[in-house]
Amino acid sequence: MGETPQITTNLKMPSAMIKSADPSFWAARLLSSLSRVDVSRSCWTTLVALILPVLLLWALKRYRKMQDENRRPFPFMELPQELRDMVYENLLEDPVYPPPPPCQHQHSTLDWVIPGRRSSASAAAQRKHTSTWVFLASKQVYKEYMDLLCKKATFHLAVSPQNYKPLSTSTPSSPSSSSSSSSPPPPPPPDTRIWNLPQHALENIRTCSLKLVTTSAMLGVTDPRAMTSSSWTLGQRMRSQLKHMTSIKSFTLDAKALGDPLWNPLWIWYHASQSFKLMGTEFSDTVPIGPRLNKITFSLDTWSPGENYLARDEDKGGLWTWYCMKDHAVGADVGPEITVREFCGKLYQECGVCRPESDGEGGQ
Ligand SMILES: [Zn+2]
């Protein structure tokens, strides 16, 4: 009996739920809430419509300002000199005169399809020698960068059949100048310079490596026995340009002889070394006396048994001394009046350290 009231109370709840499940009741509630949402939404829309253009305008202004700032060049020249030098130092590359060809890579229409097509060697070659654009920035940057280059880099100067222009090329112009005696402009004096380097740069170079790649034709004579090293025209031209190198600390020469069926490479080595040995000494034929060489090496374009090299022995007052390929002293140089025969003897003199058993044999 006591259980029935409990049932009735339990029945009350579903009846209330049924009542509230009436669709009309819910529709009324939904409509009233929707009208409230509508009011607040229209409020928001107005607000957003007002704020959004303002925000957009602000963003646009900021973007334009940023663009303007990006477009303005970085005030590099306002940096202190030390900082500018630090930037330049990252760009330093040993200058090569004459400069190598810009890029030997053959451009192809397939390059854009396969980026990896470019060989790593050509890419490396392209990466190299890219800092010369700095020279074009301004006169001041040019001067500052050149100064640093002269102080810290090694200048590689070369004379080879590729850049050797005999002075006789100016002679064809002489008949034209004689025929055009009526025309007013006189022909400019022939440019005897070998490297396109300004004098102020030459004066500041500290380290230089000179490479002579010589053929017998470059000696400019038909019989090498008839010439003296000091009268070698190419040698004279080089000395007259190199004499401006007054700040040099290290200066080396590599005399490379290109094979020739008629001539012994000895003649090239002999005249090349003889014409530069006295540079920078009291016996120099230039004013100023020019830079003093520290080392002269000899090489061939083909295989060779290994030539000794010449270097100054600073312990003996800078006397020229012959060294083997493993840097053992082989003997002192004869002097400026060395003959070709003596030169040959020194060039191939056996080293007593490397080949002690042949020491007695060499003395015979
Ligand atoms: Zn040796």
TrEMBL record:
Organism of origin: Clathrospora elynae
Origin: domain of life: Eukaryota
Transmembrane region(s): 39-60
Region of interest: Disordered: 165-193
The entry's keywords: Membrane, Transmembrane, Transmembrane helix
PANTHER family from the UniProt entry: F-BOX DOMAIN-CONTAINING PROTEIN
InterPro entries attached to this UniProt entry: AN11006-like
Protein name (Swiss-Prot/TrEMBL): Uncharacterized protein
UniProt feature, compositional bias: Low complexity: 168-182
